[in-house]
Amino acid sequence: MDFRTKIDIPASKAKIDHTTGILLMGSCFADNIGLRLKDLKFMVEHNPFGVLFNPVSVQIGLEILTERRLFTESDLYSFNGRWISFNHYTMFSDPDQRTCLQRINDSIVSASEFLSDARFLFITFGTAWVYEFRKTGQIVANCHKIPAAEFRRFLLNPGDIVHACDVLLEKLNAFNPDLNIVFTVSPIRHWKDGATGNQLSKSILLVAIHHLVERHRNAQYFPSYEIFMDELRDYRFYDKDMIHPSEAGLDYVWERFTGTFISGESTGIMKEVEEIRKARNHRPVNHDSAGFLEFRKKIRKKIDLLHQKYPGLNLSEETAYFS
User: Fold this and answer.
1) Range of 308's domain?
2) Which pTM does this prediction carry?
3) N or C, which end of the chain has less CB nearby within 10 Å?
């Protein structure tokens, strides 16, 4: 007997290989998948604005990339001795205004250029709750520890999200007609909203995405949220906080993700790259022993053979390590 209800995920018609540009935007889940793809030598750019949780911030960020709009001093806000952007995560903040602007604009230029040639865009929404900065009326990507009284907190409705993303998808199609857009909802629960508030938020996101996928031929949905809520209905798939996914849970979603999107050839490349990565993580007792020197030669030969078969793979770090 099968003691779980497995979600049926049709294989994507468009496939990802190691020559496919992949941009991921949104919540922490986009970072988790993006880092795994990067480790396995896919062409990846993820979260060029940092982690973004709500659909409005994701929409604004992607429109900035399609316009390649650079930031100026007027786009920054000074708080507690640091310059911040309400469109960015805290990692872009800095005590020096020029440094803050440089980080932001370098990331925009790089990500915009990457997006223009990418084949896949993964958008992960985390919550439909948003914070509006009272002084400007701007919905912020991050509150940057500014007092809560400075913000108005409210819940988006599905129509708001669909309208904003309809316009966004039209701009994306004009910017890059070959782009495949995949929506996901983060399985990470926003527990500070309460159990009911979190569920209401996720439901709004799901309804909005349903309408977007129906309206746009190049859009599809990957059920990462449903995998955790239904297939992985057990707290062993969560971390110690009982909210974030555990490594085992992420491994399983990764398995479903690769089975849905990764081409057969790249699945084989992934296995070879993974062997080299495991070898790099090996910690010998004696670096100068004959056995370890022989081991290094063996792995270096594997790297050279893999590079000969797939010249586009970036194996420079591994080559340097085993040389």
Assistant:
1) 263-323
2) 0.94
3) N
